[in-house]
Write a structure and sequence with these properties.
heterodimer; A: 190 residues; mainly alpha; 10 helices; elongated; B: 356 residues; 0% strand
Chain lengths: 190, 356
Amino acid sequence: MEKDLGEERDERLASRAAGGDRRAFDALVTRHRQAVYRLCWSATGNHADADDATQETFLRVYRALPSYDPERPFGPWLRKIAWNCGLSVRRDGQAGVARVSAEELPDPADPADGPEEAAAGNEEKRRVSAALAGLPAELRAVMVLRAVEGLSYAEIAETAGIPAGTVMSRLSRARERLLAALGAKVRGGT
Amino acid sequence: MDCNGAREMLSGYHDGELSASDRARIDAHLRACPDCAALLESIARIDRASEVPDPGREYWDGFNRRVAERIGKEEVRPKAPVLDHPRRGWIRRQLPYLVPAAAAAAMVVAVVRHMGPATAPAPSPAARTAPPVSGQTKAAAPPVAAEREEASKTAPRPAPADERIAEPPRTMAAAPPRSEYAPDRSKAEIGLKAEYPSRAEGKPSPSPASPYSETPAVAKDRTAPPSGEKMDAAAVQAVTESTRPEPAARSKAGLSERSARAACEEARSLAAKGRFREAEAAQRECLARDPSRTNQESGLVFMAELLDRQNRFAEADSVIREAETRFPRNRPLETYRQRRQQVQSGALPPAPEPAR
């Protein structure tokens, strides 16, 4: 049964959830919670608000499922709700001010690298993540949606409700700022 | 192309979002400019290094349960009815308390009358042992025939007092008897098994349009007292009467036509400014003051939109059902259905303020 749910398309799961299938909703949450969290983090810049917004997103999804049209793709619908939740939480708190601590930053290890490379890569990721958290919210958001989530400009534009041209200019500014914040260490290349 | 021009476009080039002609120009520049090529590589490295801090496995392990608990709490939380008949349901639920109260009041009046004003109003032993709940007049029935007759005369008298009791204190409106909700609440908080409380569970006939909109507890809520706005009752009255307006009601509506229009306009204006809660209050007034079919048909749909914009989807569902029932082939509703999803997701901004 679980396997079946895992293989179901989002739209089908949403449809089943709207019909009262709690496991289908649970599967949707499990499938999308991390992406939703990242999106909310991109809007808020800190874990506490991202956590609030992520939970709120699924709450709103649950409420809205009866009116969800399964003919339309689930992903953009979900992203839009998550984005609005992120903005809403941000408005309630410190507007767009990143509150990131060293403990919040990732400490990932890439198993493909050797120990030294992994350590260097981790250090670079920590620095980039810290710089990312310190970006203004509108720049951080497009950067996360593009670099982390891999969305196209059109998808980012739809999610954030801005023109694609604005996405391009914001991304360019975000990368400039990150490069400036990180200095020669990243700019120097390999 | 010089370096400044190229750098402006490097970001879009990296993302593959440039037109073919721009791409060709950047390609040509990069072949001749090692600095810009290095910058492009730096952009790629930054992208690869960009990460969002993951809160960790422990956080995710409990995440679904936390969401389920929030949903559970929300579903058992009483919601203010929008356009239903709140008092009737509230009275029905209070009957176990009201009947003995009315009976006791009748009994006291009967005894006092029987004993006379100069005598101390001590109830007879029989009256003291009268069963607490056995029908309004029976409970008040004293053993003496005269008293019984007196009681039957006085029994209807407590009705005004009854009504006063039935008028829910506003502070109680948001807190119906806890016992009715306790089982659902505890179940949700414990997070049993499947964790997500099913909206369809226990519901006798879920609406296909919104199968999740109500749990049994929430269904009860539709008969719960209003959340404190007197306009709820007025709106209910206006809505229910609008399909059969009497001449008196029509003239009344005519008298208040200007203020009705003002309320309706205020609702639209507030909505255009994103002040949905205030707009909702104005729209209730609009519906209450103008019972005309035209206003009710579009006004209910607008009310649903205002509720949707406040993420009160289940209440909006109720209003939509009301609109469907009262106005079949409701054109404003059909139009709204097409854009409702966008409204709910926040993708569609409210309509601008109408020109006056």
